[in-house]
UniProtKB/TrEMBL annotation:
GO molecular function: ATP binding; DNA binding; DNA negative supercoiling activity
Entry protein name: DNA gyrase subunit A
Keyword Nucleotide-binding in record: yes
GO terms, biological process: DNA topological change; DNA-templated DNA replication
Family designation: Belongs to the type II topoisomerase GyrA/ParC subunit family.
Organism: Oceanivirga miroungae
Catalysed reactions, semicolon-separated: ATP-dependent breakage, passage and rejoining of double-stranded DNA
Purpose of the protein: A type II topoisomerase that negatively supercoils closed circular double-stranded (ds) DNA in an ATP-dependent manner to modulate DNA topology and maintain chromosomes in an underwound state. Negative supercoiling favors strand separation, and DNA replication, transcription, recombination and repair, all of which involve strand separation. Also able to catalyze the interconversion of other topological isomers of dsDNA rings, including catenanes and knotted rings. Type II topoisomerases break and join 2 DNA strands simultaneously in an ATP-dependent manner.
EC number: 5.6.2.2
Amino acid sequence: MSDIENKNNEDIVEDKILPIFIEDEIKASYLDYSMSVIVSRALPDVRDGLKPVHRRILFAMNELGMTYDKAFKKSARIVGEVLGKYHPHGDSAVYNSMVRMAQEFNTRYMLIDGHGNFGSIDGDSAAAMRYTEARMSKVTNELLEDINKNTIDFRKNFDETLDEPVVLPAKLPNLLLNGATGIAVGMATNIPPHNLAELCDGIVALIDDRNITIDGLMEHIKAPDFPTGGIINGRQGIIDAYKTGRGKIQLVGKVDIKQTKSGKNQIIITEIPYQVNKAKLIEKIADLVRQKKITGISELRDESDRDGIRIVVGVKKGEEPELILNMLYKYTDLQTTFGIIMLALVKNVPRILNLKQILNKYLEHRYEVITRRTEFDLEKAKRRAHILEGFRIALDSIDEIIALLRSSKDPGEAKERLMSEFGFSELQAKAILDMRMQRLTGLEREKIEQEYNELLALITDLQSILDSDQKKYDIIREEVIKLKTTYSDNRRTSIEDKRNDIDIEDLIKEEEVVVTITNKGYVKRVSADTYKLQKRGGVGVNSTNTIEDDEVKNIYTVKTLDRLLVFSDKGKVYNIKVYEIPEASSKARGKLIGNIIDLDADENVSAILSVANANKSDEIFFLTRLGIAKKTKLDMFENINKNGKIAISLKDDDELVFVALSSGKDDEVFVATIKGMAIRFKETDVRSMGRTAGGVKAIKLRQGDKVSSACIIDSTKNEKNLEVLTVSTFGFGKRTKLSEYSTQKRGGTGVKNFKISAKTGDVVESLLIDNSDEEREVLIITKDGTLIKTRIKQISTISRYTSGVIVIKPRLGDYVSSVALSMEVEEEEEKENE
């Protein structure tokens, strides 16, 4: 390349590069960004009280014809319409904005009528937009009315293919009605919602007296009115906000202190402050109890339902409820501060406004809307009157008109001749050509004359409105009064000058735990996560330090909130909650269960049953060491006092081995013995008996044999997936297809279940498993407290005549004492939070 060409290129580059200071560029760019956030995203317009995203949502729904009296449409359809046409941002931003307008706990007068899961005051998110449906609520019509009458300005959308409104006509005073919250750059708005009836009274007062003071307006507009109710403590914050645009008000929940029949005091919370998460409020109270910051609470109960909020806080005897309440106010969101900043866009400029200024801006907007609507209606009326004038002239000369039309070769010529020969305007000529022949009848002529006279009166009336400011304000006044009549409701938030049963279980974290009990009655619970998974065949880990001559008897997997029925070797039953069993480390001994329930001195625990997921129609199935079976209705064990009650009558040399819930109808029972035999029979072979009955024979035992365990075969499950998991005293285990055990009549000797030898030891436990859930775990514990936790899938599936594989290797002198399965994982419905 020549030097001349190089020089020319350098000149071109130099011409395009402009040196600037980076500080100036940053300032300019940040200012542009700030104004975009302020005007186009975060702050509401003072006229309709809406941010752009809310305005676009309502406009799009209006364009789709989704009024309150039409069918619901999928939320995803609405979001797609808004994104594709007006709001080129994230779908979650649009959907979340729409959801908020449909939440009764967030919006005082809901603008969207939601159908489906739109979230809750507990902080639950709305369902995914593909699941929910929506339409505009009835009150929203008042924001959009007359939008097609040239009442507001439109602008091009983001790709300049469609028009969108700059502001809505907004007959409702929406900025104060529903309030607004937004954080822009360097500024924020936080306008509280108000009561419609009070706002309407205030607007009427302002129309009647344009010089009214803010104090005068406050005689009508008392204070903010929040959708969740509550109480505003003190008036100074309200006065500050209404006079300066800024103020702080203290919100507290609505609380009653009541005394129960037993003499205990209860704090009952029926309303909570605005935007407080009810579930988190309860959780906070629970944390305070756990941390012993508040020690006077005996129970915490959420009795909320669709009729409203009701949180019951039980107060311990001897505690002062007022003191507890004061502590709740101090440490929880039962008392909050709402900082009012009445910032809104006025002609795209953010301004902090007082109460009267906001109402004046509303009136100015409505004045303009009424003016433009009247001009639109006047133009339309004049246009129609002009056409009717042509009809009147045409009807007076109908014969000549018809002759003219017959002699014209086409409509264009006919129109030109009508205009030239009769003096019609182009609009009149076209209307005459389009006129139907039936308009020539006498009755139709009268209708034309009547319509024409009515239009003349309307034109006179509309013109008088345009010529009179007072008439425009009279119309606004009438509309506001009609709004009050149609939509007003009672105030929810009260104003005060001063502030002159979920059980205790809800303070407990619900989780899966392992409960162990020894022969001497030491019991404890340990989180299931404490025990790590191991491969089968290991020696396990030490899980319990037993005292001399004591052994681990049983192991159970339950949840902390489960209700347990504890059965003793004397045939009695006791009631206990899992969380009442002391939590301990994996190696701790635990606590004597006799210190938790009132066992007799010579009474020991034989079996434990969780009834957390029981149905009222269920029955309890009992099986003893000597093979005696019995079943009793679960409802017979509803009310168990501290001293327990009789559950089964046992022989002196017998003991309870197994208890479980059954349907009482179509289930089957599987009974295994220590010497490797098993029987399968229908549950209906054992009739339902009373609590004190002894039972009937389930299996005929050979000499020296005893029942080791049993399980209920759920009739609703697919037998092809069911297997029997058997574990022996020296740690051998196997899985066997349930189908290998044929159903017999109860009382028989059964069939071979496990090959017993000196190497395997006797059968400890036979449990029913579902092989479709291979991630489920089995926990095996020895008499000395060594525990192994492994996946079921690591244990081989083989025939019932075999001994199985090594699952755990007990140390010398130790042996397996109990086996338990981890809890089944309940399938949860898919919930997407977008």
